[in-house]
Structure to design on (429 residues):
């Protein structure tokens, strides 16, 4: 009995120490302001321009580093809430051409990473943090250095499919009006096929086109594919400069990925001729022409076949966000009640705008946003820079977000070389 009592006492005595374990505080490079109920802390700093962010099935974090490193493998200690810190970190793949896109098959065995021109695949072991058997799977995506990101998504509803995004060649890429350029679109590839023989980008199925620079692509729990698009810079209409508040940044829908008959699939979303209104007050004759928030319209001088009616016959955005705020990702919480969108921030307006993480409420029953397409308040800011006048040089700049297997939300900030964990009602309706 004495031995038993001693064992119980020793175990009980050790409990306060275990419970009290916590992570060392890392001061953020730039302080963040949080909406009521939300909080956050820096999990890791000292990275090299972190961009893409995913978790493997073991709960390890993988990020692409645009600053010349490649892919980093990070093991975490999680003591509850935002009390999360790095247990170990190592370079998984060294390749200075890797710049953004990263995805894992749902079984956690195949890792896909992209560069400006190419998508590669590796066999991946999350337990040991190792890769092997590198293969080129998609190629032929050189844009001459403009819009370099190639976002990758493997939908859980269609796990043999790899979605690959490609942006425009220029601010206004006139040839992108033809699908044959392979620019400004999202294409779908059958993974089992491209692992056997690499495919040219033009060989993929067009899931959506007419998308200027859709860096953010995500899957709703119902299998619906959504994206956020970065609108054109320096916009004019009928001889008037309207670029400061137009066009909007778009939230677009591309149908359920496992339904080839979905009417949204393969849709043309307007670029390079068409955009959507954010601020009708500065557009000449907007009221007479019926131009309101979210209405597609033509840039420049309407005439001939280049008309607003032509634009309105194409796919309109489901929601709009303020111009030049640069949304770069969209991820849904586990019950489909919210999407989280990081806005990287503007260079084409003064004062600067964006530089924040926002929540958009969703109706899980319909699979659609709660707010109508004409809303200007759908994006609820939960983490932001209090003074965007100091941006971009003295701000955090969100790039990607990712949910851990346990449902926690993490975010990369490329200018401050940090990864944050965000606390609050992330998975609540």
């Amino acid at each position: 009995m004495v031995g038993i009592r001693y064992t119980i006492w020793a175990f009980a005595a050790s409990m306060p120490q275990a419970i009290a374990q916590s992570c060392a505080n890392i001061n953020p490079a730039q302080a963040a302001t949080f909406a009521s109920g939300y909080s956050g802390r820096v999990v890791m700093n000292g990275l090299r321009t972190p961009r893409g962010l995913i978790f493997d099935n073991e709960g390890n974090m993988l990020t692409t580093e645009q600053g010349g490193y490649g892919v980093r493998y990070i093991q975490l200690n999680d003591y509850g809430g935002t009390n999360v810190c790095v247990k170990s970190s190592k370079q998984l793949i060294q390749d200075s051409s890797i710049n953004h896109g990263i995805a894992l098959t749902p079984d956690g065995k195949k890792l896909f990473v992209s560069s400006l021109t190419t998508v590669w695949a590796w066999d991946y072991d999350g337990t040991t943090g190792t890769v092997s058997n590198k293969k080129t799977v998609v190629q032929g995506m050189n844009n001459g250095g403009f819009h370099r990101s190639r976002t990758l998504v493997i939908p859980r509803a269609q796990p043999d499919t790899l979605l690959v995004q490609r942006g425009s060649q220029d601010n206004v890429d006139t040839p992108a009006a033809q699908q044959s350029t392979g620019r400004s679109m999202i294409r779908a590839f059958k993974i089992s096929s491209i692992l056997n023989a690499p495919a040219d980008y033009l060989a993929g199925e067009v899931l959506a086109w007419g998308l200027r620079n859709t860096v953010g692509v995500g899957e709703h729990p119902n299998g619906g594919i959504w994206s956020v698009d970065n609108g054109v810079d320096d916009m004019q209409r009928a001889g008037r400069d309207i670029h400061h508040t137009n066009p909007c940044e778009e939230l677009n829908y591309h149908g359920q990925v496992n339904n080839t008959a979905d009417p949204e699939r393969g849709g043309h979303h307007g670029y390079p001729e068409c955009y959507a209104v954010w601020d009708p007050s500065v557009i000449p004759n907007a009221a007479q022409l019926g131009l309101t928030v979210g209405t597609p319209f033509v840039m420049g001088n309407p005439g001939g076949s280049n008309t607003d009616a032509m634009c309105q016959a194409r796919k309109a955005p489901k929601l709009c966000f303020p111009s030049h705020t640069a949304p770069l990702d969209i991820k849904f919480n586990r019950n489909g009640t919210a999407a989280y969108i990081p806005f990287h921030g503007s260079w084409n307006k003064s004062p600067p705008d964006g530089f924040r993480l926002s929540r958009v409420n969703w109706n899980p029953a319909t699979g659609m946003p709660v707010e109508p397409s004409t809303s200007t308040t759908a994006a609820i800011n939960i983490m932001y820079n209090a003074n965007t006048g100091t941006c971009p040089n003295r701000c955090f700049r969100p790039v990607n977000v990712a949910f851990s297997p346990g449902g926690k939300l993490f975010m990369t900030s490329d200018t401050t070389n940090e990864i944050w964990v965000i606390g609050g009602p992330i998975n609540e309706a």
In short: The CA atoms of residues 86 and 230 lie 33 Å apart.
